[in-house]
């Protein structure tokens, strides 16, 4: 589904991503795990085509990213960590869900919104609420619903669980797994947390100082070779 070849990204003299090669199959959840500043969000922005790579290419279904996006508008969505500031506090939830479509010709019906609300397991009263009236988990469900409204094939989750308590994280992981199955979604989960990565994803790519140093199946973590991956695993065992 998604293939990244020899990709590098420089900001002025600084090489943030170095010769990245990565493949994600359709319907698979891949976690991009790495320490702060390793370049995870930069790679996310490149996949969303918000920025251009300095070298290399991103392909989706064997087409260059930009030409694929022209044919498949809004087919990549993102959910951010900072869910409270992702939604305008002056909007009711119904308006926050409709807002991305106000400028576009595309119409989103109330029925579509209600169906999606059921899929993310939120009651319908939420639509007439403001975000300050909802819990963190409920707001993140709204953000997931908003990301799914455009019917994406790929969902980028940029530290999307970080701001939630452990219990709510577990609930959202369950929800994301259910949605992945129902909609055959491909997830690109950006995180520094190996524990939530293992709970959600089938595969893990480890980013260390701008390099993918290792890609592992989740059932194969014991065969990790790179010292940074081993340190991450040890840290989880220790906890
Ligand atoms: N627009 C930019 N201009 C210059 N440098 C940038 C820009 N965006 C990111 N960087 C630098 O690139 C490096 C990687 O940043 P990035 O946000 O991708 O890392 P990250 O792994 O997502 O970090 P975190 O986990 O803290 O969010 C950092 O050193 C950052 O300062």
UniProtKB/TrEMBL annotation:
GO molecular function terms listed in the Swiss-Prot or TrEMBL record: ATP binding; ATP hydrolysis activity
Keywords: ATP-binding, Nucleotide-binding, Transport
Keyword Nucleotide-binding found: yes
Gene Ontology biological-process entries: transmembrane transport
Domain ABC transporter span(s) in chain numbering: 2-234
Superkingdom of origin organism: Bacteria
Gene3D superfamilies for the chain: P-loop containing nucleotide triphosphate hydrolases
Listed SMART domains: AAA
CDD domains hit by this protein: ABC_NikE_OppD_transporters
Keyword Nucleotide-binding: yes
Pfam families: ABC_tran
InterPro entries noted in UniProt: AAA+_ATPase, ABC_transp_ATP-bind, ABC_transporter-like_ATP-bd, P-loop_NTPase
Matching SUPFAM superfamilies: P-loop containing nucleoside triphosphate hydrolases
Protein name per UniProt: Peptide ABC transporter ATP-binding protein
Organism name: Malaciobacter mytili LMG 24559
């Amino acid at each position: 589904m998604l293939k990244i070849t020899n990709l590098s990204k420089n900001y002025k003299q600084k090489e943030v991503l170095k010769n990245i090669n990565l493949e994600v199959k359709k319907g698979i959840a891949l976690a991009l795990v790495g320490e702060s500043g390793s370049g995870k969000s930069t790679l996310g922005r490149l996949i969303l085509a918000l920025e251009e790579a300095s070298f290399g290419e991103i392909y989706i279904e064997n087409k260059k990213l930009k030409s694929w996006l022209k044919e498949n508008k809004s087919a990549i969505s993102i959910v951010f960590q900072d869910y409270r500031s992702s939604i305008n506090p002056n909007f009711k939830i119904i308006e926050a869900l409709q807002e991305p479509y106000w400028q576009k010709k595309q119409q989103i019906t109330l029925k579509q919104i209600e169906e999606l609300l059921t899929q993310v397991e939120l009651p319908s009263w939420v639509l007439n609420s403001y975000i300050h009236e909802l819990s963190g988990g409920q707001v993140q469900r709204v953000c997931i619903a908003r990301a799914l409204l455009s019917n994406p094939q790929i969902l980028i989750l940029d530290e999307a669980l970080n701001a939630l308590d452990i219990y709510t994280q577990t609930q959202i992981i369950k929800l994301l797994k259910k949605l992945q199955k129902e909609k055959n979604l491909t997830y690109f989960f950006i995180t520094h947390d190996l524990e939530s990565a293992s709970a959600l994803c089938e595969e893990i790519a480890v980013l260390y100082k701008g390099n993918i140093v290792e890609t592992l199946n989740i059932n194969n973590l014991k065969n990790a070779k790179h010292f940074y991956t081993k340190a991450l695993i040890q840290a989880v065992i220790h906890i």
